[in-house]
Amino acid sequence: MKPGAGRTRVGGRYGDAALVVAVQVPAVDGRATAAALAALAKALGCPSRDVTLVSGATSRTKVVEVPDELGPGVAALLES
What we know:
By secondary structure, the protein is α+β, with helices and mostly antiparallel strands. It has helices at 31-44, 71-79, and strands spanning 9-14, 18-22, 52-55, 63-65.
């Protein structure tokens, strides 16, 4: 996750299998994490409740869980 970015963007790879999520919101009081989860849900075309933070609430590296049927969407975002 990249907080404080110039614009909110989801897509691309960081390392081998990490998805890049950039958000305009600064990393203060968990607002950037919430914005990142919302941006990911929007990019996948699913409700926010389907994107769950598993770990990394205060880290730039986050682990999220999405339903299995969204796997192809995640793969497409990694390649964009």
